[in-house]
User: What shape does this take?
Amino acid sequence: MTPARSVPWPTEDLSFGGDYSPEQWPRSVWDEDVRLMREAGVNLVTVGVFSWGLLERSPGEYTWDWLDAVLDLLHDNGIAVDLATPTAAPPNWLLTAHPEILPVDATERRERPGGRLGWCPASPVFREHALRIVGALAERYGEHPAVRLWHVSNELGGGNGRCYCDVSAADFRRWLRARYDDVDAANAAWGTAFWGHTYTSFDEVSPPRGVGGAPNPGLALDFERYSSDALLAHFEAEKAVIEQHSAAPVTTNFMVGAGSQVVDYAEWARHVAIPANDHYTLVDDPDRAEDLAAAADRMRGMTRDGGPWLLMEHSTGGPSWQQRNRAKEPGEILRNSLAHVARGSDGALFFQWRASTAGAEQFHSAMVPHAGTRSRVWREVCALGRALRALGPVQGAPVERARVAIVVDEASGWALQSGLKPHRGLRYGHELRAWHTAFWRRQVLTDVVPLDADLSGYDVVVLPTLFVVDDAAAARISAVVEHGATLLVTYASGIVDETARVRTGGYPGAFRDVLGVWSEEFTPLQRDERVLLDDGTVVTDWAEDVVVEDADVVLRHVDGPLAGRPAVTRRAAGGGAWYVSAMLDADGVQRIVDRIVEERAIARTVTAPPGLEAVRRVRQDGTGILFLLNHRTDDVVLSAAGTDLLDGSGHGPETVVPAGGVRVLLEEATA
Assistant: This one.
């Protein structure tokens, strides 16, 4: 069951630690840091993320002594290093000498120094300086025994995801020339005859600048793709320099959540040795635990082979960038961390090790908070360290194969949320969260997979607002029905092709035939408008005038502008094909999921009330490791047996998971 690991993991056990910034503290604190790291069980720290200005005080003049001492100190204390290239923060001398490297926003306003990622991905000036510091860093530390992992920059795109400067515009044109045979091919793809926007040369094409306008949808989608590729090209350039001097694996930290992403992480995952993610819960999210699960399932899907990934950052408490930053409740640090581990992460790292006393994120939570080691947070950090050491048998064991796949694609998110649309308030992550939540509440594991994933072997495939799809992908997805799987397609799916051209003949164009229905017209509901379906489901925001040709009507509208018209249909061919043409409330989604789970006889990981999360990882010998995380405020009793790896207690045939608590049961090996 355990896939062969193609790259060495940076630690012998599950990884535990966080971002370490010793440059913010006097030398005397460093000794205390490593003492506390050993006390907590830390075995991996990220170093040097924002250190460029200290390492290179002027072009080609380096100061290594402090970093030499830090790496030696960590290695002497048995702590591995994830060494970051410091290119997330260009030094002020570089920004002063070359202000043209700063990114330009859509209004053509150049960003000012003082933030993060203050550079244009297409800038050859920045690239030259960046590769110089990366080369010097890799040459000096490429074979240092502490360095077990390389970390390119930091959250690439989180500040420079889109640049509209003239350098980027020229690079965009170069990208277009490589994508299209000639400018007429681009005109045909984008439909530039509309509004008389025909181009006679690629030199006439500019990025979709301006705010509040109506850019050409195809051009705008290509600019999103280009922007992702431009950042990936920079990552690849840094990685190539590192690999000239070091055999340690190279990664960078993603920012994968449930919504539309800043870059095409599914593609990026092919280029990193170990996919890594930063995840922070939002204070106004009513289902924070499910959001965490959705992001983790999406990360696991990006590995494509079920291999491990790494939680590179999350928080011990409130971050610093939300309107009101919520402190975590007692026990939540452990639950959040092990929820990621349960779903495939072979570690749990934080931002940050020691809470800063100055700078923009001086109030961001940390493993060592401002209150120090007498705090509850520190006690829980140490408890987490003990837990991760106890979970050694988990390392390398894949999550068991899900029977449900939810298909996502960045192009759909970018296209759905830009330009003129029938409902400009739709958000790509809404339906992903809605359907993922319904399976999560029933303890049914889902794989959240990219569009190119192998869908064979799944019993259920869900397409939540898969707005953009090409003919080949549409055919491959539709074929799962004849192969016996159940397909569920939501509204705003299959609407446009890969060039953002609308598919004519009725919505959802790419999936009309497999669904046996088509929609004549979109009927967006107004802000306060609510309509009912005949089972009591409440519909908001979106509905369609559905015409049934070869399907059964499951639910109808009972009031509103579409009273009596179909809302949810099911075609009986093969494994069945469902079309959900409206935005359903949570209860409505849950009823459909419950019916599909029952019809397909999909076994729940455990039988428990909503809020009890259950995920199993399986070792090569067939031994299951069952994670039970109770996000509820009451104890949960359920059927499960095994030895709790966290405290050594035996359980079975029933176990009690305390309110807010966690059990990780080592089950008996199956034959």
About this structure: The chain is about 30% helix and 20% strand.
